[in-house]
Amino acid sequence: MVRKRKSSSTSGLAVSWHARERPLLVLSDQGAARPLPRDFFSMAGRDRSWNPHAENFINANRVNLAALEVTTEWTPDVAEISLRLKPGGVVGAVPLYAPDTRKIAGGVVIRPRFGWDDIGPLLHHIGWSASPRILNLPLVPGSAREVPPWVLAGPVLRRLSKLIREVRCGFRLHEEVRQSPRGQIVWSRYVAQQAVRGAFHELPCRFPELGPDLILQGFLRWGVERVRIALTPFSAGDAIARHLVHEAENLLFELRHAKTRVPDQHSLRNLLRIEGLPSEVLRSGLQALGWLVDERGLAGTTENDSLAWCLPMHQLFERWVEAITRAWARGFGGQVQSANSGETTVPIVWDRRSLNSLGSLIPDLIVRTGEQMLIIDSKYKGHFEELDDHRWHELREELRSEHRHDLHQILAYAALYEANHITSMLVYPMQPSAWDRLARRRQTIITANLRHGGRNLTLALACIPLKLPIDSNPEDITTNWDSLRTID
């Protein structure tokens, strides 16, 4: 008698398998340290506390955490160690490796403390000049749910746009298998591919040809279409996603004569051999296409995982301060020099070259107008908000020490230049609501006059909001800066 095997499911349907959702730790930049729960990873062994695993965790994730300037803190307790992660001034996402298996078991996302809604319009206004940098790391589990789609789609679209601009009509090297020779015969390919299979009449030739590279344009059209498809569902409620969709449609119009071609990694590698294109533009553009081909959490079918990336907030803030400073200076014909352009570097020449010390002084911005000079240094810190909410003696000694250091630095910059009137200004970020309150009372800037040795020096502390709606103008932020142009 043959017994029937009982079904494993009473309903007769196969039980669907769901992958275990890996944990994600979300922090805010320059925020307080957060404890990493001991059950964050499924660690094996009897002792599953951090006591035997803390050092292994730090060693396994040292590079990843350093990319986001996240530091680890050990706090001894009565029975076990408490492991805490303290975020720095970098936003982004990286995977985390388990301390015992060294496999990806989770991730960490550092979000801007001013919020994504404020960062998006700012990135748009500065033209993504301080865009996120994609890290050469594996995907970050679950990070796609915590990061707006435009954070990564914006830089990718910018790379593709630059490459589209560089693909112009002109002579290019073209390779083609022909039965009659033209240009240069590629003998290495002929021996390796044609001669070995007896196709002696097929000649791989390389010759110059006039016209745009329609194959590359077809790949670019496919990439732009993928970005547009990924952003379209978010465009109704997200102004930045809506703007990027509009940019993608403009790029597709430029590529309207090219036929959409789906690339693969092999064809992208072959395009790197094309001559006549700027290598860096070509390399970065093809790399972005490679991300789309691999569907690495960007404009693909992946819903949870996304690329590892980082964005130092101080760089973003410096570019923002530069953008509004240039807009303000245009109103009175001021000449602006920028550290980003290498125009403000003042080298320090030591009498002993072996001395390993500071090599130069680099103010962020210098504005010249007539007999007046304005030196601006941006600081991505909360000092102005602290001074506004608390009196000086109520601040922590650490904050007071940092603020003194900032003042000494900007005064050192002032000593480098000669002018009848010099203004040294530190610019700090502030929450939009707090800035609006101070702007209504015309208190977004504080000044002090220093007179010594015949020099007239004005010291200023200013705050700006880390937000600008797309339809607003930067001049609205610098209204109170006009008082700095008054020379006694």
Strand order of the largest sheet: 12-15-16-17-19-18
Radius of gyration: 29 Å
> Overall pLDDT, averaged?
80
| Residues in helices, as a percent range | 25-40%
Number of domains: 3
- List segments where confidence is low: pLDDT < 50 over at least 5 consecutive residues: 1-20
Determine the structural class based on helices, strands and strand pairing: alpha+beta
Q: Roughly how many Å apart are the termini?
A: 111 Å
- Oligomeric state of the chains present here: single chain
What would the principal axes of the Cα set say about the shape?
globular
What is the total tally of β strands?
19
Helix count equals: 12
Q: Approximately what portion of the residues adopt beta-strand conformation?
A: 15-25%
How can the largest sheet be summarized? 6 strands, mixed
